[in-house]
Write the structure tokens for this entry.
Amino acid sequence: MGFFERYLSVWVGLCIVAGVGLGYAMPGVFASIAALEYAHVNLIVAVLIWLMIYPMMVQIDFGSIKDVGKKPKGLVLTLVINWLIKPFTMALLGWLFFKGIFADWVDPQTATEYIAGMILLGVAPCTAMVFVWSHLTKGDANYTLVQVSINDLIMVVAFAPLTAMLLGVTDITVPWDTLLLSVALYVVLPLVAGYITRRHLENKGNNAQGNGAVDELVSKFKPFSVIGLLLTIVILFGLQAETILSQPQDIVLIAIPLLIQTYGIFAIAYFAAKRMRLPHNVAAPACMIGTSNFFELAVAVAISLFGLHSGAALATVVGVLVEVPVMLSLVWFANKTRHWFD
């Protein structure tokens, strides 16, 4: 990892501070940004999220999916955690804290939106940053690619109905057209664009040359992806500046169940991986995928469904705030416990 990527959590923290400061000092600018939307999808945020997602989609090798049968246990673990456990524990924790423990500190409407934002995080398994976590834990890159590819394919068909079901449980009316548009815009289209790009690059030469061209393209896009992430954070925190400064306690309240969810899911997945006797280079990435979130998609859908200034959008933004330092701590733990899997 380069210097910039190594200290990503520092840059994220600085962008959070910058976003809040700029949002407080120049609210009119951020109001203009918020007004640039079509069908409840903010155009500037959409472009920035595409900058983050597209290079990751280019790395997905659909041909590698056929090899998944050789080591199925790691994939099974990831899929069970992502689709049968994590969304429901996130919904349960959201309801437990904001309808129960924190009920006297947050008004009911805001509490409902916070729960919705948490659910969106829980239903969106990580697509992009997991490649970083896998690299840091010396994971099997090809197997990680298969896991991410399968998750993306499932997400195309499962994200919308699962989200609608869980949001419906919390008595929120779901506009299906907006939800499906968000899935198409942030999952299907980048996936198709990445597939077409990869095929084009691979067809230009032999297999080795094609892979080299893919790596070169991804490398060229990496600075733009990081810039997209940081600018998105500045915009999101700028739009929420007034809420953050007037209700800083809400940031803490949202972070508490998110931290419990993240560390709890990792503990479940890591324990299961050890019991399943997975090799560490498969177990660590599998647990990272199951633990981390596709926060780009969660933020986008929260904005699309509830608006840029909503509690749901704020909850997903807090997810961004929590994710990077927490995942780095889990990378450290996974590396320190590598001998458990010998």
Summary: The chain is about 80% helix and 0% strand.
